User: Which sequence fits this backbone?
């Protein structure tokens, strides 16, 4: 009984950073901006979160700082791709490389230090319910934020006027511009939201998932988050489902390693990466469907004429 | 003061000295224009005269360099389309500013400045569309709609803002003659309701029929104000072009010509390649040596898909569906079809017919690296740049391509000059079969006349020429017979002697091709 | 204040030539600021980084050793990027090339004759190309995004190498260290000038590959095809070229060269397989490719610059005590500035004061004041 509960709990902790990063990227992509710098923003969030939490002793300050740094870091990407109209793919790569480099330099003095773990919330009575108790009512606060964010983004995109405007910008920036919608301004906001979410996801890694700083500790999760957005055809609840699926794969392989199933640990470790490729193949096989779902101006440069 | 206010009651919009420069180009140079209440005012000019630039400044999507806009007597600064809408200026764009992935109602919601729930927008839009006789389903996805339906959304969207001035940019270029008539009725009704309309067009007949006054632009400058009803089409054309445009000469089909079928299409089907593309169904057509066949049709009825199928950019499962000079070509790619003697000119110049950032000489290589491999390529596929440059120079001279610099990038040329180059690139080969999609789209009158003449001459010299166009005037000018493409199907060719605008227009609107002769007889 | 871009009708030849230099200059400036922030004298730091390694012959050899894989990988990537194929998995192709090339000396250590080295190099090329073929085939066949698939395969390749050197390929006489046996003499890529330093033939391969691809791209129809499909895929199809075949071509070339880089590094510089055989060459090569403006000749120069940053990082750590982690910061910044400066090639950048000033604001005093406010 306890075993199943523990596994489900760890799946949630493995899924939450993926969900956060992917939800942020989803918003950015819905506005038409492909930011391949998720990994870089995430790792910056991880190092910032750890460093601030360690020096102040407050995990919440760490989280806050990570969110701010993630957003600021994405602003760099925004300035290049939106104002200077650089290639989004190349600039996203640059952001990732810079993030990995900077975080390594900043984090050097924090390697091996004991981290500050953000504790779980425990709602009295409810969290003592059998099985689902701790799972639903006894998680860490960011878990609840991630679920709330998914709901909020769904509402925003499909129920609010601002969300409609954002989807319009992602569909055709030229039409939007002709109607007087401030395309670049909206995209800046979307990109910064993506950066903030990635920063939060990074902080989750270094403050909840494994409370410590290790260089490159995101280990490709930012890239997996990017794949999740495609997998989810740009729909928030499907992102959540995908994140939990990947969480399950990662946790499954960890448990398999612990149990010693006779398969080399390296093979098990590569499962999440291989699963990403397989899932991408399955989802993109249907060209028509991919075309229908992809925001039509995703990745396209936009230069307004004034 | 009193006199002025009395005049302000009549004059809705008064523009003085509006100027806009792009780099070194003066797109609009000191343009003056006044529009009275309840007037349909035409803005005339050929492609590139600055009409679109001018109205974009009125609508706030472009910022003028200098000049003044007075609205109801008050100087105003139209900083954004939002400001324009608040003032009461509405716009129907030429290339539509719609979002394909959104519904009609959502599209309308986006241009309303107040937040309104979608269901109430849908209800209002439906009510308005019924009262003007422009049926519209507010919950349909724009991507699934025809161009005519899309224009309806644009018009309804504009009317919902209760504008006092409505700007329409080339609205009939995407309509059948019958749909255009319907639009004119709507516009006349709006005029009756006291609204003013700025009507942009280069089609003289409709301007003469509809408009009260006209302002003519040439090279960004106003060259005259006039009452179009008192002018002849020829005099208006002279004002627009500034010169006598040489009429295209079409010598009669020679009886001695061989009249061999050089391009034959038999039972061509094509399933849709993308969610929004049109399937082609059982298309049959024969084009003979010496003749020009025109294919008319409203945009988005499968012309692009058809062009790709004929050119070999999309191949067919059966080799027999396309025959070029008797060779079965259905399964051959575009290069093999070129080697059989065919040449192709697509609709889109930049990004399809030519690579924008590449030099003209490289763009010559684009379509002719295989057919002229002996001249242009050395051993090991090394490009003989000298030979290519010489050929490019020859084409530029023959077609009178005006450019800056020796060998500029394709994107640096004006639309008309680039099109002359692209057509010339193929003519230079003397192809036996020439397939052209929209030969003079967005091209100035002088270049258009030259291109049309060149196509006729190619045909009369013994080639088969197939021209796809949405410009009926053009097709009537150059074709020996006209077919109509509607919803992925092609009508039987109507010989030019029997073809009328009405007859072709009905086919464009989807009248059963089998009954076309009967309909035309009325 | 607003920044506005005005599209140039023609690319600016001037900025196409100088933009990498501007970017490098800005990076140096940023580096100076970074050193000051770290509490070091900026000039000393920059000297240690970018000048000191060039002052001795042996370190020039080290420069060639580091530049070889960067140039080899980057010229391959330039074919990919030019044709709009985003292969970012060169690091994985490098690793698989190294593994495939090492089969002979590690698994068949007794097979010793002059054929071994050429076979190793060929197997390295084949291994890298085969690994690159996976994302290429997935893209062609299933429309799978090559950016994500090629990157995911990097992690898989690294884990596979880790397993090999800790498991089946571990040196039986190696005291349980995670490494293979040392390559025998026939399996070692020789040095170019053994008397003066360690630089091996990998650098010569790199220069030859760059020259060959430069000729291909700038002089032949194939090069035209690569550029055309990259710039305007639709025009490329209209020209009769196949996007699918180009995807395969670009990935195979890039993968093959990355594989060659991998086996050259292992047999020339390291002499055995270890869990980590690359300090991120596959990713740094992306920067090299862009800094060289995707021109194979430019890439030679850019590869030397990036190689210098690796050496400089090591040197600066020893001489002024800054972490060698600054290397990747420099490299990341450099790519950012390169991309930003490339904007100048296509656009004229204007600074517009908001709200828009009148054409001659100084004529009317109050309005000029307003404009400044």
Assistant:
């Amino acid at each position: 009984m306890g075993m199943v509960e523990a596994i489900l709990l760890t799946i949630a902790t493995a899924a939450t950073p993926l969900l956060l990063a992917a939800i942020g990227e989803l918003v950015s992509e819905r506005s038409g901006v492909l930011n391949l710098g998720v990994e870089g923003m995430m790792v910056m969030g991880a190092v910032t979160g750890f460093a601030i939490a360690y020096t102040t002793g407050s995990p919440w300050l760490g989280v806050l700082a990570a969110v701010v740094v993630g957003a600021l870091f994405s602003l760099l990407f925004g300035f290049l791709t939106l104002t200077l109209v650089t290639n989004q793919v190349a600039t996203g790569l640059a952001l990732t490389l810079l993030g990995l480099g900077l975080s390594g330099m900043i984090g050097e003095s924090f390697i091996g230090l004991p981290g500050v773990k953000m504790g779980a919330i425990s709602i009295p009575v409810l969290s003592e319910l059998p099985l689902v108790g701790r799972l639903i009512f006894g998680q860490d606060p960011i878990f609840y934020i991630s679920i709330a964010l998914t709901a909020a983004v769904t509402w925003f995109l499909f129920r609010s006027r601002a969300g409609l405007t954002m989807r319009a910008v992602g569909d055709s920036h030229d039409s939007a511009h002709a109607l007087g919608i401030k395309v670049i301004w909206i995209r800046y906001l979307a990109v910064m939201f993506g950066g903030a979410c990635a920063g939060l996801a990074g902080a989750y890694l270094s403050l909840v998932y494994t409370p410590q700083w290790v260089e490159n500790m995101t280990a490709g999760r930012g890239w997996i988050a990017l794949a999740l957005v495609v997998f989810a055809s740009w729909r928030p609840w499907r992102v959540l489902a995908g994140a939990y699926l990947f969480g399950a794969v990662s946790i499954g392989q960890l448990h398999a390693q612990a149990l010693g199933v006779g398969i080399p640990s390296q093979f098990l470790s590569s499962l999440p990466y291989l699963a990403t490729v397989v899932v991408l193949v399955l989802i993109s096989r249907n060209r028509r469907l991919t075309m229908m779902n992809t925001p039509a101006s995703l990745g396209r440069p936009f230069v307004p004429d004034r | 003061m009193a006199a002025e206010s009395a005049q302000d009651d009549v004059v809705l919009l008064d523009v003085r000295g509006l100027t806009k420069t792009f780099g070194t180009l003066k797109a609009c140079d000191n343009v003056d224009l006044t529009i009275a209440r309840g007037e349909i005012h035409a803005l005339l000019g050929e492609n590139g005269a600055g009409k679109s630039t001018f109205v974009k400044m009125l609508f706030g999507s472009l910022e003028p360099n200098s000049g003044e806009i007075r609205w109801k007597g008050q100087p105003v600064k139209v900083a954004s389309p939002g400001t324009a809408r608040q003032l009461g200026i509405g716009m129907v764009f030429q290339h539509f500013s719609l979002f394909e992935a959104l519904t009609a109602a959502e599209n309308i919601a986006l241009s309303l400045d107040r937040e309104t729930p979608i269901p109430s927008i849908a209800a209002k839009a439906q009510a308005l569309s019924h009262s003007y006789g422009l049926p519209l389903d507010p919950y349909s996805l724009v991507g699934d709609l025809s161009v005519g339906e899309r224009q309806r959304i644009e018009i309804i969207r504009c009317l919902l803002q209760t504008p006092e001035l409505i700007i329409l940019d080339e609205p009939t270029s995407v309509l059948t003659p019958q749909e255009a008539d319907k639009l004119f009725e709507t516009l006349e009704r709006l005029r009756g309701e006291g609204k003013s309309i700025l009507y942009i067009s280069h089609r003289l007949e409709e301007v003469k029929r509809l408009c009260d006054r006209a302002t003519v632009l040439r090279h960004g400058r106003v060259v005259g104000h006039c009452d179009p009803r008192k002018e002849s089409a020829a005099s208006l054309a002279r004002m627009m072009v500034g010169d006598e445009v040489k009429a295209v000469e079409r010598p009669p089909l020679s009886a001695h010509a061989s009249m061999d079928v050089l391009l034959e299409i038999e039972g061509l089907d094509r399933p849709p390649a993308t969610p929004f593309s049109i399937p082609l169904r059982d298309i049959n057509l024969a084009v003979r040596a010496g003749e020009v066949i025109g294919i008319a049709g409203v945009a988005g009825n499968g012309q692009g898909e058809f062009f790709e199928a004929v050119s070999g950019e999309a191949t067919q499962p059966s080799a027999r569906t396309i025959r070029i000079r008797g060779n079965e070509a259905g399964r051959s790619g575009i290069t093999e079809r070129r080697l059989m003697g065919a040449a192709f000119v697509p609709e889109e110049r930049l990004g399809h017919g030519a690579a924008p950032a590449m030099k003209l000489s490289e763009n010559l290589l684009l379509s002719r690296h295989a057919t002229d491999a002996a001249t242009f390529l050395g051993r090991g596929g090394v490009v003989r740049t000298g030979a290519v440059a010489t050929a490019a120079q020859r084409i530029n001279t023959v077609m009178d391509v005006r450019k800056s610099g020796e060998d500029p990038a394709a994107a640096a040329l004006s639309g008309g000059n680039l099109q002359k180059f692209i057509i010339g690139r193929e003519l230079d080969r003397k192809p036996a079969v020439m397939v052209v999609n929209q030969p003079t789209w967005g091209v100035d009158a002088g270049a258009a006349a030259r291109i049309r003449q060149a196509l006729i001459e190619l045909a009369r010299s013994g080639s088969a020429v197939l021209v796809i166009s949405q410009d009926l005037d053009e097709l009537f000018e150059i074709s020996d017979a006209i077919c109509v493409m509607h919803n992925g199907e092609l009508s039987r060719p109507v010989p030019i002697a029997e073809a009328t605008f009405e007859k072709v227009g009905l086919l464009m609107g989807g009248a059963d091709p089998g009954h076309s002769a009967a309909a035309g007889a009325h | 204040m607003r920044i506005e871009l005005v599209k140039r009708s023609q690319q600016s030849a001037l900025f196409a030539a100088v933009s990498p230099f501007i970017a490098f200059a800005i990076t140096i400036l940023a580096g100076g600021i970074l050193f000051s922030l770290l509490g070091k004298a900026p000039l000393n730091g920059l000297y240690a980084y970018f000048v000191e390694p060039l002052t001795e012959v042996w370190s020039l050899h080290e420069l060639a050793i580091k530049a070889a894989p960067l140039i080899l990988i980057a010229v391959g990537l330039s074919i990919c990027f030019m044709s709009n194929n985003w292969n970012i998995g060169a690091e994985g192709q490098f690793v698989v090339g190294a593994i495939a090339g090492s089969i002979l000396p590690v698994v068949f250590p007794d097979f010793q004759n002059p054929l071994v080295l050429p076979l190793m190099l060929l197997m390295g090329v084949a291994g890298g190309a085969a690994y690159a073929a996976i994302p290429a085939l997935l893209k062609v066949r299933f429309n799978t995004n090559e950016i994500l698939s090629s990157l995911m395969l990097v992690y898989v390749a690294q884990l596979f190498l880790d397993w090999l050197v800790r498991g089946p390929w571990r040196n039986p006489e190696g005291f349980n260290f995670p490494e293979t046996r040392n390559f025998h003499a026939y399996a070692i890529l020789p040095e170019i000038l053994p008397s003066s330093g360690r630089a091996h033939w990998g650098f010569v391969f790199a220069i030859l590959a760059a020259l060959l691809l430069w000729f291909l791209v700038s002089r032949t129809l194939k090069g035209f095809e690569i550029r055309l499909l990259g710039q305007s895929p639709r025009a490329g199809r209209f020209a009769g070229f196949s996007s699918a075949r180009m995807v395969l071509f670009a990935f195979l070339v890039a993968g093959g060269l990355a594989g060659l880089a991998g086996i050259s590094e292992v047999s020339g510089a390291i002499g055995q397989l270890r869990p980590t055989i690359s300090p991120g060459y596959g990713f740094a090569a992306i920067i090299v490719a862009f800094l060289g403006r995707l021109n194979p000749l430019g890439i030679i120069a850019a590869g030397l610059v990036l190689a210098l940053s690796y050496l400089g990082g090591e040197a600066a750590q020893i001489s002024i005590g800054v972490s060698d982690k600054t290397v990747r910061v420099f490299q990341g910044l450099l790519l950012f500035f390169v991309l930003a400066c490339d904007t100048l090639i296509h656009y004229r950048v204007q600074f517009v004061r908001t709200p828009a000033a009148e054409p001659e604001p100084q004529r009317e005093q109050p309005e000029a004041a307003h404009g400044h406010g």
User: Anything to note?
Assistant: Chain C has 15 helices and two strands.
